[in-house]
Each structure stands twice: as C-alpha cells, then as structure tokens.
Amino acid sequence: MILAVETSCDDTAVALLEGCHAIAERVHSQEVHSKHGGVVPELASRSHMEILPGLVNDVLLAGGMDSLEGIDVLAATAGPGLTGSLLVGLAWSKAAAWAAGKRFLGINHLAAHLYIHYGQEHQVVFPAVALLVSGGHTSLFRMNSWQEILLLGSTRDDAAGEAFDKTAKLTGLGYPGGAALDIAADKGNPDRYPLPSPMADPSLPEFSFSGLKTAVKLLWEKGADRSDLAASFRRTVVDLLISKLMYQCEVLGAKSVLSAGGVTANSLLREVLRKECSARNLELFLPDKEHSTDNALMVGRAAAAILDRNPEAFSPLSCNAFARWSGRSLSPIGSP
Ligand code: KG4
Ligand code: ZN
C-alpha cells in the first residue's frame, strides 16, 4: 500500500494505491492564484499547509483506513517545482513516514507524469517516444524501456502550457487559462491569423514559444477576434508539438507514443494525437484529462515502479526538494 503526495505547484493531491491500482485519490486545485494572474509561491505553500492534512485523512478514510498503519510506503514529489510548495508535501511525508515507522520515497515530478501509464493492463511497447507538455515543461523523450528514458530535447524558453496561460491572460480568459482558451478556440477559425512557427524544423527536438506569444500580443492589440486568435494559436502549438513528435517516432522506429502533462488535456492535441498515431500504427497512451494535469496517482505509480524493481527501495530522510531537473536520463527517483 502506497500513500502518494504531490505538492509541486498549485495543486495539492493525495492518492492511496495498492501497487499501481488506485484505491482512493483527491486533488485540490488552489483558487487563490487566479486573482493574481499567476501562481504566487508563498500563497501556494501556505495553501498546501492548510489543505494537505485534511486531504490525507479524506483519502485514508475513503480507502477504509483511519491511520497510517496499513501503509507500507509514503511517496512524495521531491522536484522539480516550486521549492516552498515541494517542501510542504515532502516534509509532511518524511515526518509521517518516520513517525509511523514506514519507508519513504522521493519522486521526480517529470518522470511521474510519464509513469501515469505504468503497470496498466494496456502495456507500453518499446521503443516509445514521450511528449511531456505542462505549465513548466515541454520535452520529448526516447523510451527504450521504463528503465531507460532519455531526453531528446526541451523548450528553449516558455513551456507550451505557459504560452497557453499567457495568451489566455492577454485575451481576457483568466488564469490559469489553458482550458478556457481551448474552449474559446473551439468556436474560432484557425486559418484567420497565420502565426509564426518558431523552430519549426521537425528534425529539431527542441521548442520555442516566446516569439509566438509576442505575435499573438501584436494581433490582439490591433483588435483581433478572440476566438479566431485562440484557434490560430492552438493550431500552431499543436502542429509544432505533433510534427516534432512524429519525426522522432519515425527516425527512432517507435512502436508507442506516450503523452502526459497538463496540455495533454487540450482537445485539439488529443484529437490530432489519436489521428496521427492511428495513421502510423503507433500505440497511443493518453491519460484522461484529470490525470493529465498534476495528480498524486502518477506519483504513486512512479513509486510502485521503483518498488517493482527493488521491493526494499527507500529514499533517505535527507532527500531534499529541488527546483530544477537538468539530467539527460529520467528516473522516477527524486534527485536533480
Ligand atoms: O501538468 P500541470 O498540471 O502542471 C505542471 O506540472 O506544470 O499542467 C498545467 C498546465 C497549465 O499551463 C494549464 O493551462 C495547461 O496545463 N492546461 C491546458 C489545458 N488544460 C490545462 N492547456 C491547453 N489546453 C487545455 N485544455
Ligand atoms: Zn506537472
């Protein structure tokens, strides 16, 4: 039995798992940031402190437990993320593990997004290419197995989700506005405003979204239509993501595609992923929308994967939070 905690940004999430199987889970999305137009780190940490203990109780009760006695391992995201936010979940989990005499595992948040697909009935066939698109990251990985996940390239500036959020904020769709922009785009004409596609060469596994954001800003200031601009922006981002992903699948002879991270909730991205993967006979692993954005089930499954390889595995209680991950080889174990 694994109790998993995720507090890397502005979602407080807890899950109870038996191996990879979800017994109970809860996510609390902090509303406090919307009026500030972005995540305020100090407010995020305070909110995690207030919400986390109650959320743990709710999840334990939903799983028929009233203490940590039945838990074998506590797992928490160690990074990357906002340090103050990470520390709340990490310190709580380490302290609870120590007090209850249980083992603790620190987890890498980026790997966890991919591990939502681990240990499921529909198994990943390797080699695979993974697209990780969230508010903080946009990267492509080559997966030779669950043990060998190699970074192909990342964004050089903004993450795709960040570009969605900034465009949504600019066009009055609120914060975080990725999902609102997605809805607005459904009503718009994607051909109305041709936008630049920075670093469009499909063979380059890197991204750049800051120029696109500037082009949108100029059009908006000239009175562009909101829905048409949203549709044009969404299509440009999705085309960039898909062309680079499919190029890598072809050159690496991939059999599967894994997609994860908050932007995977985007309806156009989901539609195009399904279409392109089916046309190329690629198995597609797409989380449902709730498990595309931050959640604790993915943290629990990353922990389950570590334990499948080594049932005695544990992280030392000196395991600390880290804001950035700068490796080439991605492991579910939480270290920078
Ligand atoms: O994975 P996530 O919950 O947190 C990070 O690890 O960053 O991703 C959050 C990001 C936000 O930028 C949010 O606007 C974006 O995912 N997002 C979307 C949609 N739903 C969430 N972006 C585009 N379309 C959506 N439907
Ligand atoms: Zn995330």
Model description:
Helices cover 39% and strands 19% of the residues. The protein has a five-stranded mixed sheet, sandwiched between helices. The chain has a five-stranded mixed sheet with strand order 8-7-6-9-10, sandwiched between helices. It is α/β, with parallel strands linked by helices. The protein has nine helices and ten strands. The mean pLDDT is 96. It folds into two domains: 2-114 and 292-309, Nucleotidyltransferase, domain 5, CATH 3.30.420; 125-290, Nucleotidyltransferase, domain 5 (2-Layer Sandwich). It is globular and about 60 Å long. It has helices spanning 41-62, 83-100, 109-115, 160-170, 178-186, 210-221, 226-252, 267-279, 297-309, and strands at 2-6, 11-18, 21-29, 73-79, 103-108, 128-133, 138-145, 148-154, 256-260, 283-285. Strand 7 (138-145) and strand 8 (148-154) form a beta hairpin. Bound molecules: 5'-O-[(R)-(carboxyoxy)(hydroxy)phosphoryl]adenosine and zinc ion (ZN). The site of zinc ion has 5 residues, from helix 3.
Summarize this entry quickly.
This protein is an alpha/beta fold and 336 residues long.
